[in-house]
């Protein structure tokens, strides 16, 4: 690692924007002319770092509703530090509104980020995002472009309370829905709940995918220390935005690019933080995708190995029972990292220009039961199920030769070693229709299986993997069952759900061969997921299998289906992965 101080500072002539603005030819004239068309004077944008602010704000992205205003604080920071700020609106992926799933657009936002930065006179960038797919997408684009970049997390929404209980976005929606479905909550109460759980702008206030991914980005060294836990509406969030702007200018002079920060070691740090937080299974898709952009091959088994040794110490929904506002008061991510220092490479460089160890040194946490001691983690494994407290387990077997994942800490320990009869659905719509059927042939030991929900089959790998419990079993008091799919699950959800089965059924993965009535076995100790069907029978079924014809014959979805990789590889586009150099655009 070379410290920023040991490098010569960049000169004005070395700025990327210099190529656009300094030349004495007709192109340089036109570039300066068009800036002045906006009322700017030459000195505002010439001879200083031009900082792009990639803003994923929109009116249909409630988690990012404050980012338009927050960009003003970033601009003040950039100006104060001697740079010139430019706001670049980008695709806004509000998780709840975007159909069929934001996942289908993660790569599009990554591509947009990279190409915005490449095609415009930008020297450094502040990336504004937070809602689930936006942190990985923005980081993927910035890694590929490799100019100085700092990630500004949108921050979580404030806590809510309902009948004296803390209630969290997503997690409690699902809990209340199950109670409403069987009449434990009446219509008036249900309608009233619409105004609850999401009390302010900001990302989901549980350790869902947004908090998981912003924590991963901070642990990788791409955010300011402590940034991800600051509530969206806190004045500290505006101050952090100012600091991001100011820091981005210095990072340009220091030439502190992502390729100097993001290494295999920083990924290990990020996975370690993820394991300690009890983070979302979606990280198992986004981490390999981000690593791929840095030219790093990340094996799912590396994540499994880290999750085996790093205990969950964040007492946050859906694994625990506190919310992100509590996490902020308790000291946020640096307080967690200080507790698991022994598992981290503290020499990793961060956007501060210092090491991770220096960033978190002396960061005071509060011992209030939100961030626990590793000696007394959130969930202890038992003799029968040592895996019960783990954030992630990676499975292999004849149902998932390229891998599948499960989050044991959000599952029922008694279902983690389970054998049952499969009930297989070919589509989400078919499955949802069946769940209300009082005559559905199902009991608490049945294994619910959904296929055609993968990257190509979904398409876009929607969050269908948390299949609902059949109504007739809900009435019997059943709240969890073993569920298997090639889909993903919302990070705010819980349950014994095997996800990301690869290869997916739509490309002929073994999941396509499973039939209702077959026996399926999950053995978490052996990290195995198998169907107990003979090789001869599977060969017969394979020979009879016909690849489904895509209903998408044009447009972005067609490109997506042609380019997307399988879940274990991160679902990036094949042609976007890797870190081969891309030439700078010619100015003429
Ligand atoms: Fe945006 Fe949960 S919906 S973070
Ligand atoms: Mg989510």
From TrEMBL:
PROSITE patterns per UniProt: ILVD_EDD_1 (PS00886)
Domain of life assignment: Bacteria
Name this polypeptide is given: Dihydroxy-acid dehydratase
Domain Dihydroxy-acid/6-phosphogluconate dehydratase N-terminal: 48-358
Record's keyword terms, sorted: Iron, Iron-sulfur, Lyase, Metal-binding
MF (Gene Ontology): hydro-lyase activity; iron-sulfur cluster binding; metal ion binding
Family listed: Belongs to the IlvD/Edd family.
Pfam families, alphabetized: ILV_EDD_C (PF24877), ILVD_EDD_N (PF00920)
Presence of keyword Translocase: no
InterPro entries documented for this protein: Dihydro-acid_dehy_C, DiOHA_6PGluconate_deHydtase_CS, ILV_EDD_C, ILV_EDD_N, IlvD/EDD_N, Sugar_Degrad_Dehydratases
Matching NCBIfam families: PRK06131.1, PRK13016.1, PRK13017.1
Taxonomic classification: Bacteria, Pseudomonadati, Pseudomonadota, Betaproteobacteria, Burkholderiales
Organism per entry: Xylophilus rhododendri
SUPFAM superfamilies: IlvD/EDD N-terminal domain-like (SSF143975), LeuD/IlvD-like (SSF52016)
Residues annotated as domain Dihydroxy-acid/6-phosphogluconate dehydratase C-terminal: 391-571
């Amino acid at each position: 690692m070379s410290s920023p101080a040991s490098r010569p500072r960049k000169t004005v002539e070395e700025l990327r924007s210099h190529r656009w603005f300094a030349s004495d030819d007709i192109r340089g004239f036109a570039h300066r002319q068009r800036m002045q068309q906006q009322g700017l004077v030459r000195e505002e944008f010439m001879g200083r770092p031009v900082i792009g602010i990639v803003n994923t704000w929109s009116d249909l992205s409630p988690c990012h509703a404050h980012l338009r205003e927050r960009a003003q604080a970033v601009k003040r920071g950039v100006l104060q530090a001697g740079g010139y700020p430019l706001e670049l609106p980008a695709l806004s992926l509000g998780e709840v509104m975007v159909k069929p799933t934001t996942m289908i657009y993660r790569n599009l936002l990554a591509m947009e980020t990279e190409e915005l930065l490449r095609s415009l006179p930008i020297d450094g960038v502040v990336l504004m995002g937070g809602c689930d797919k936006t942190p990985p997408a923005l980081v993927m684009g910035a890694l590929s472009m490799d100019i100085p970049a700092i990630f500004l997390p949108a921050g979580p929404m404030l806590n809510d309370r309902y009948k004296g209980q803390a209630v969290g976005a997503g997690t409690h929606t699902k809990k209340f829905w199950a109670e409403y479905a069987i009449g434990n909550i009446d219509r008036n109460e249900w309608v009233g709940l619409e105004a609850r759980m999401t009390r302010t702008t900001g990302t989901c206030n549980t350790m869902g995918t947004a908090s998981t991914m912003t924590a991963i980005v901070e642990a990788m060294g791409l955010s300011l220390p402590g940034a991800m836990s600051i509530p969206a509406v806190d004045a500290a969030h505006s101050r952090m935005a100012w600091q991001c702007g100011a820091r981005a200018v210095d990072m340009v002079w220091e030439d502190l690019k992502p390729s100097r920060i993001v290494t295999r070691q920083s990924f290990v740090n990020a996975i370690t933080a993820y394991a300690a937080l009890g983070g979302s299974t979606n990280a198992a898709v986004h981490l390999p995708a981000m690593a791929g952009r840095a030219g790093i091959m990340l094996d799912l088994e590396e994540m499994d190995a880290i999750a085996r040794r790093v205990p969950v110490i964040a007492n946050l929904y859906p694994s625990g029972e506190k919310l992100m506002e509590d996490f902020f008061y308790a000291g946020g991510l640096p307080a967690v990292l200080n507790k698991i220092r022994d598992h981290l490479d503290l020499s990793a460089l961060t956007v501060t220009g210092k090491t991770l160890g220096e960033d978190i040194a002396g960061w005071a946490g509060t011992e209030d039961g939100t961030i626990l001691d590793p000696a007394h983690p959130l969930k202890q494994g038992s003799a029968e199920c040592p895996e019960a407290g783990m954030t992630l387990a990676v499975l292999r077997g004849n149902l998932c030769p390229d891998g599948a994942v499960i989050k044991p800490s959000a599952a029922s320990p008694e279902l983690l070693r389970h054998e049952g009869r499969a009930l297989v659905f070919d589509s989400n719509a078919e499955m949802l229709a069946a769940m209300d059927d009082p005559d559905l042939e199902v009991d608490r030991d049945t294994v619910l299986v959904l296929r055609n929900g993968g990257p190509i089959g979904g398409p876009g790998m929607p969050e269908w993997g948390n299949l609902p419990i059949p109504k007739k079993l809900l009435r019997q008091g059943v709240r969890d069952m073993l569920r298997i799919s090639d889909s993903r699950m919302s990070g705010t959800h819980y349950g014994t759900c095997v996800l990301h089965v690869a290869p997916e059924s739509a490309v002929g993965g073994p999941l396509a061969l499973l039939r209702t009535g077959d026996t399926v076995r999950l053995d978490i100790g052996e990290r195995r997921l198998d169907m107990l069907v003979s090789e001869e029978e599977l060969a017969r079924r394979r020979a009879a299998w016909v690849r489904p014809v895509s209903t998408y014959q044009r447009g972005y979805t067609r490109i997506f289906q042609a380019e997307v990789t399988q879940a274990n590889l991160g679902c990036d586009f094949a042609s976007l992965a890797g870190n081969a150099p891309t030439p700078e655009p010619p100015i003429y």
